[in-house]
Amino acid sequence: MSLRNETRIAIIGRPNVGKSTLFNMLTETRKAVVKDQPGVTRDIQIEPAEIWGTKFDLIDTGGLTEATDTFSQMIHEQVVDFLKSVDLLIVVMDGRAGLIPEDRDVIRIAKETGKPFVLVVNKVDSVTGIDAIAAEFYEFGRDVLTASFERRLGVSELCEWIVAHVKKEVNTVREGLTLAIVGKPNVGKSSLTNRLLGENRQLVSDIAGTTVDAVDTQLIRNDKKYILIDTAGLRKQAKREEDVEIISAFKSIDAIRRADIVLLMVDGSEGPSTQDAKILEEILKRHKGVILVANKIDVGERQIPMFRQWFKERATDELHFFETIPMAFISAKTGRGLPELFTLIDEIERKLNAEIPTGELNDFFMSVIRQAPAPVYGTKDVKFYYLTQTHQVPPSFIAFANHPDGVTPGYRRFLSKRLAEKFDLVGVPIRIFVMKSRKGSNG
């Protein structure tokens, strides 16, 4: 189940009328993609907001249109279905375009919900002619507010309406382990999000590139709190031709940066690819815990003999630079494998936050450095003195030595591997820094 504030307010309207601009303004975020191009917002965004001490959840939705293309129809169905769960509506229309037939469809949808709503005519940039612009929208029998979100005109009147209609002030602070779901387009990321949340929050189709935004949602599973981030698919750079895809790639990378654990999702029936390796490199560069999630195992097991062994061999080949990457096998469609996935998530969380007593750490350290020839700096052996753990996550360590420059990446990998094996840290990216010891200043 998802955790939310008592009051939910949804912003609805045709494409490109300014819904995401209003969402970003009221939530003081830049989470909704804003671009002067219809159809940019395809997913439902939910974010806590506060106006003059009144707290609520604000929801940005995809543009409602009568167009018959697949995306437009999916967005229409998704938004109409989701509005059953909201409390108030802000209906946004375009004052520059004037009243058009699709606006009547939006009003019809708003009325059919039975929820209170306010009509806001956006893009009214001049005080002259306001009455004339607003007049044609009065046919709906509602009060009409005029505004220019870009210039922040008329927003205070909207805020007054919101505060007057929010009956309860319940503050929900998002907390818990942050999980980012990343991967190539069309591997099942949004299907997994929907399965976990039990809500039709993300568009799901067989068309690559359906999800544009990175969407944060509070999740409670087995009485434990998580923050779930579903992201747009990361394509190869050469294929990011449209501006929207470039923006989406930045949002996916930002989601990786904010995550505690990244779920790198791949199509299990295809196995990891070179592009998945590039994404994994991005995750490891930011020192994040990661789990390789093989989705569509029902298809994989049906099509490929000894499927799991085949998949692991593919992973070893493509992701050779992280041989111990944790793996989970799931079906986002049926929910199979999800309990095992969350058991693994909890295990990785424990490892990420592991603290090793200093005495045990140094007993191990002095023992292990005797097992391999000492690194050489010029003509001198590198001497290690002691090892200490930092307060960083994932576990990081500082080794003090007489000649830090003589400690090669290969020797660091040797130490990291032994640390992981000894202290049950296999599967998390350990870091080892080497600093000059005062003891070795003359050595």
List strands and helices in order, with pairings.
Elements: E1 8-13, H1 19-27, E2 45-51, E3 54-60, H2 70-82, E4 88-94, H3 101-113, E5 117-122, H4 130-135, E6 144-146, H5 155-165, E7 177-183, H6 189-197, E8 215-221, E9 224-230, H7 243-258, E10 261-267, H8 274-285, E11 289-295, H9 297-303, H10 307-318, E12 327-329, H11 338-352, H12 358-368, E13 376-377, E14 380-381, E15 384-389, E16 396-401, H13 409-422, E17 431-436
Parallel strand pairs: 1-3, 1-4, 4-5, 5-6, 7-9, 7-10, 10-11, 11-12, 16-17
Antiparallel strand pairs: 2-3, 8-9, 13-14, 15-16
Count of discrete alpha- or pi-helical segments spanning 4 or more residues:
13
Q: How much beta, percentage-wise?
A: 15-25%
Order of helices and strands: EHEEHEHEHEHEHEEHEHEHHEHHEEEEHE
| Helix-strand makeup class | alpha/beta
Mean pLDDT comes to 80
- As laid out across the biggest beta sheet, the strand order is 2-3-1-4-5-6
Describe the global form.
Answer: elongated
Within the CATH hierarchy, at the fold level, what is the topology of the largest domain?
Rossmann fold
Detail the poorly predicted runs: 1-5, 32-42, 168-173, 202-214, 239-248
CATH homologous superfamily designation of the largest domain: P-loop containing nucleotide triphosphate hydrolases
